[in-house]
Amino acid sequence: MNGDHYKVLDRLPSALEFLRLVHISRPVLILESPVNELAQFSDESLLQRMGQNEISIAKTPSGRADAIVYSEGGEYFAEPCTEMTTMQAFLNELTSAADTDASEVLYLQSQDGNVYRAEDFNEDLDKSERPRDSELKLLRDIVPPQVPFVTEALDQPPDAVNLWIGDERSVTSIHADPYENVYTVVRGAKHFTLYPPTESCFMERRLYRRAEYQRPRPGAPLVLRPNENSDDKIPWPSLVDPDQVPPLESMPVRITVEAGQTLYLPAGWWHYVRQSNDHTGKCVAINWWYDMEMQGSRWLWLSFLKGELGDGEAFSEEDDSDTD
Amino acid sequence: MNGDHYKVLDRLPSALEFLRLVHISRPVLILESPVNELAQFSDESLLQRMGQNEISIAKTPSGRADAIVYSEGGEYFAEPCTEMTTMQAFLNELTSAADTDASEVLYLQSQDGNVYRAEDFNEDLDKSERPRDSELKLLRDIVPPQVPFVTEALDQPPDAVNLWIGDERSVTSIHADPYENVYTVVRGAKHFTLYPPTESCFMERRLYRRAEYQRPRPGAPLVLRPNENSDDKIPWPSLVDPDQVPPLESMPVRITVEAGQTLYLPAGWWHYVRQSNDHTGKCVAINWWYDMEMQGSRWLWLSFLKGELGDGEAFSEEDDSDTD
Questions:
Q1: Which domains does chain B have, with CATH numbers?
Q2: Which residues sit opposite B291 in a β-bridge?
Q3: Which of A141, A279, B178, B208 has its CA 20 to 30 A from that of B102?
Q4: What is the pTM of this model?
């Protein structure tokens, strides 16, 4: 399972080919994507579709949301300040940030199924049972609800489909998810640094007190506020920057995903993600999360490795940290 | 992975459906088989095809070939006496054994790919590279060389295809193989007692000195001769009869496979097999062995469990013990 090699596919695999890859459980770069027209994700196209609808934008001083930060002599798991704004205002800020030296880093990362949720694939639910609409519902005509070969291989629809819009200042701290992740870049590029579940020990996970960036009053700069309840801690890797300070004796898989390409990121793999801007100073991506098979040897193996982590929270879904 | 339940399919699965089952890695009973006509495996049909060609028949006093036996105060891994005879003579002996109280137990179990071998699927090999012909080559017109949905799912031909002919006196001692096993009964029935790889600890494997049944002179009864080299030992479960003396706290999966039905036995599963005669006093089966995926989490998991066994020989392919 170790080694820094990874498979590259020229085109989208068949369901059968993909299922074989799922069970080999190594990352795969696919030089195609399920998205029909990348051009449909231009600023103009996004603005035209979203109109004046407000969306949740994560804001931090550093671009390190849902990450370990040092503040007032302490270490915290810092969650971003979330503010509502229009797509127009958001994209304008990103555009100007590319030129000016903006003070805050914005990231559209509301990955609660911000385009499609599991419930959207369940016709049996009546209206009352459905959650509030996805914030980016108006983009559904350009975001494929499913990745056909994955849905067929895993015999289920996605659990969540999300759009991500940010810039090179935003970094995703290293973590692992209990989902099969299919990740397509539509503008700019994403740089993944990946470690297999077997290298969980190198993540040196610790329990961190939660904190959140808050804005004391409109116009004021963000401040980090530790959570009132000092016992509310979350297990998180203390490996802050594996690219600058790589763990010894470990072997990351480094994959850059360009616009129009797709990464298959197997469940349980640790990932650290940086991004590159397109010519307008933005990076745009879509990911489809599918539940992993919760039985059989692969699940047992991940559970076993998870158990080894001590607090047994490697893939806890309770912690609602927003992370791609 | 534990529990005594198992999936039953009314019909042969698609390649995609089968691959999902492989990765759940639990036994599955399929109420169909890849064999076109069961009638083609009648005594008459087998005799007509095999003519006077000689075949290897395993003979034991007890029906327990490749099993732990107690002899002269010692415990041995007893391999059968192998003698050459014609299909006619062999089937006659089985037929009469059903009525009379025969002294020896005969079993056609030469599972070296006695119908097809991996080399038969490799057109690149020239004649010199090919092994001697399979002993039952003349039955190839009635034994399917491959199970289409398995070959497509695993993207490879079988490693070996074997025909098995015996009677209810023959029992297969519990063991595990590093192969995906697809097992079709064509006459009589087979009774499988199965334990998942996670229950390897219950097998209480020990190292046993090898011994072989030999016939001192023609017509003489078989005697068990311990191997000259007392250091030539083989790791084998000391769990001799899990049906009569089941291990405590373990949960076997018991599956009876009737004529015309097929069992998928996942790689690494421990299996103990008894058989029932058809009306002529025989049990006939075919199995297709496919190499398992030797990378990814499932392989890691089996390797991990294997390692736990101490001698690390759980799936050793060196020991050439004949076992279905």
A1: 7-320 (2.60.120.10)
A2: B179
A3: B208
A4: 0.82
A77: Cα separation from own chain's centroid: 17
* Chain B neighbors of A23, CB-CB under 8 A: 19, 22-23, 293, 296-298
Query: Which B residues 77-96 touch A at CB under 8 Å?
Result: none
Burial per residue of A88-126, b for 16 or more beta-carbon CB atoms within 10 angstroms, e otherwise:
eebbebbeebbeeeeebbbbbbbbebbbbbbebbeeeee
pLDDT of amino acid B2: 62
Query: Considering only residues 185 to 214 of chain B, which have any Cβ-Cβ distance to chain A shorter than 8 Å?
Result: 197-198
* CA gap B163, A27 in Å, rounded: 40
Rounded to the nearest angstrom, the gap between the alpha carbon of residue B285 and the centroid of all alpha carbons in its chain is: 9
CA of B150: which chain A residue's CA is closest? A16
Of the candidates B145, B171, B169, B172, the residue with the CA atom closest to the CA atom of residue B159: B145
Strands B28-30 and B7-9, by their bridges, are: parallel
Q: Which residue has the higher pLDDT, B204 or B83?
A: B83
Contacts of A16 in chain B (CB under 8 A): 15-16, 19, 152-153
In chain A, the residue whose alpha carbon lies closest to the alpha carbon of B27 is A296
Percent of the residues in chain B that have a pLDDT greater than 90, as a whole number: 68
Report how far Cα A3 is from the mean position of its chain's Cα atoms: 24
Does the beta carbon of A24 lie under 8 angstroms from any beta carbon of chain B?
yes
For an interface test with B, the pick among A154, A297, A303, A304 (most B C-beta atoms closer than 10 Å) comes out as A297
Across all residues in chain A, what is the average pLDDT? 89
Kindly provide the ipTM of the predicted complex, given to two decimals: 0.73
Nearest CA in chain B to A14: B16
User: How far, in Å, are A1, B154, B234, B308 from residue B305 at the CA level?
Assistant: 16, 23, 18, 5
Contact A153 B297 (CB under 8 A): no
Please write the tens of the pLDDT for every residue from B167-197.
999 999 999 998 999 999 999 999 999 999 8
